Amino acid sequence: MYSLEQLKIFVTVCETGSFSAAARQLKRAQSGVSQSIANLEIAIDKTLFNRDKNTPTLTEQGIALLPIAKSMLHQQQNFDQKVQSLAQGEEHELVIAIDESLVNQVLIKILSSLAEQFPITHFELVIASTFDVENMVKEGEAQIGIVYVDGELKVDMDFFTLGHARFLTIASPTHSLANLSIVEEADLKLHRQCVHRSNQKKELWFSYKISPTAWYANTHKALIELVKQNVGWAVVPELLATQYIESGEVMSLPVAHEYDGWLTVVGCLVSRSRSSGPVLLAVTQLLQQYSLAEKQWIQRA
Amino acid sequence: MYSLEQLKIFVTVCETGSFSAAARQLKRAQSGVSQSIANLEIAIDKTLFNRDKNTPTLTEQGIALLPIAKSMLHQQQNFDQKVQSLAQGEEHELVIAIDESLVNQVLIKILSSLAEQFPITHFELVIASTFDVENMVKEGEAQIGIVYVDGELKVDMDFFTLGHARFLTIASPTHSLANLSIVEEADLKLHRQCVHRSNQKKELWFSYKISPTAWYANTHKALIELVKQNVGWAVVPELLATQYIESGEVMSLPVAHEYDGWLTVVGCLVSRSRSSGPVLLAVTQLLQQYSLAEKQWIQRA
DNA sequence: CAGCAGCTATCACAAATCGTGATAGTCTGG
DNA sequence: CCAGACTATCACGATTTGTGATAGCTGCTG
């Protein structure tokens, strides 16, 4: 089992260019640095450096592992910073993360009203895919997330429903699928699929890859553009696709058993791992005044 | 200094509900689990669990640190997986990461031509902010990145210029800044700024926060929407803002010494930590045939 | 209420790991 | 060729880790 210290030494050697320089920078004995690298290599059963010259050079394996080692150390810094901030006080920021296909003018207008109500608070809007949003809320990077919901019980988060969104299967009008009066799943599988995939490589539970060939994108907007270029077919939100369907740039396919598309729940996640205060309360109350009804955010009665 | 093993034990206790259950799951002595948690608490000088009852309950501090501990272990899994995949073979995928404000129909049309040329290859388009894109290329998560470039030497990446993009300072027509014939920096500082900030909390080198109050977003599109709602002023790409300026929804401010906005380089980063093959070569050659000229992607002569 | 099962904490001890300083061998540039 | 800088190995002491035994506490059940 390797340690964070070993990773730190590994990265420092790469940054300084030699074991000795790393030792000097870290104020350690050079022999300890040499041993730590050797121990790390033993632990992972991989050679990280060529030592045939006077200064070590990264192996291909070392090159491949360095970014992840750096990433782990970066996360460690996050941990340490969090430890420090726990010893101090509040935070003056509120992070709202929203699925990229749920953001439109109306929603931002709704949220903008918070500016007058809380003039000192720094808000951050993070636009990302549903899985990334959920992960951000789970990890405490965002206090609020607006996402598509898959029915699984949410852990460490509060949840309330905001409405429903419809997803349609679309293709270019010049695509051969566009000539079918009924589109079976077998028809779809004959053609390349444009799949939504989050930064964590997760696919939505109702639009995952079923074709053997695929292109991926992490925004539904990009998917629509790929469909317009006739790269393939895709499942996308009606909220985004409507204008392109009306202009004839794409068309909604009559998929067997899904003539009206796929309806999915839109909800709001509220972090429990971030301290809650009056601002968070106000935001959740504001959101609960609105509902997403297929194509539009509307105010509840 | 805490270890990854201590973090793993911490997370396992939280998941199993007690020190004993964690010990059973991890096939360790309970006393070792107790010691490891105590040692972790000593290392970070924070109490993670209340032990006043029969089973431990997370403290507020424990709750705050758990997500980051999980994240670190997740990264460790990534490291371990990478170690394993180094022992195995190739990959059949190519990831292109693009700054969100540089994506438009034309660029996607350009890239879509790759579908016919490489029908078997899985492409992934990742839309993110410049810093995130750069980080992805640096960490080997993407082979190609299209970003704004700040003039710093790129480490572990190849680079070539694609063109230039202009950034404008905009505000709502009803904003008080819109009445000034010349806008000084001091004027801007009197009002809330809408700042672009990446997922890594990085701000662009020419549009960082100068006002004491700010709202943040990780897409320029969202910034424009905030400006339209008169939340504040923002520095955004002309490529995105032009249509809203022409329709009168926002206006470009005549900032002193920056009448024509800020011109910045757009470039293509190519990862060196991912193996290169014919597909990567074809993509880079395709991109080198095009140039971004302020408002539009055009084909070079 | 008493007994029992399950919980955490502490102790003693052995094993494992870590870090230092000394030393030897190799490489590189002047 | 020589001096300086490099890495590797060794011996050793210090520190950490893990086990098993033990003691004390909590919560449930009859």
UniProtKB/TrEMBL annotation, chains A, B:
SUPFAM superfamilies: Periplasmic binding protein-like II, Winged helix' DNA-binding domain. The keyword Secreted does not apply. Keywords: DNA-binding, Transcription, Transcription regulation. GO terms for molecular function: DNA-binding transcription factor activity; transcription cis-regulatory region binding. InterPro entries: LysR_HTH_N, LysR_subst-bd, WH-like_DNA-bd_sf, WH_DNA-bd_sf. The keyword Transcription regulation applies. Residues 1-59 form the HTH lysR-type domain. Belongs to the LysR transcriptional regulatory family. This is HTH lysR-type domain-containing protein. It comes from marine sediment metagenome. The lineage of its organism: unclassified sequences, metagenomes, ecological metagenomes.
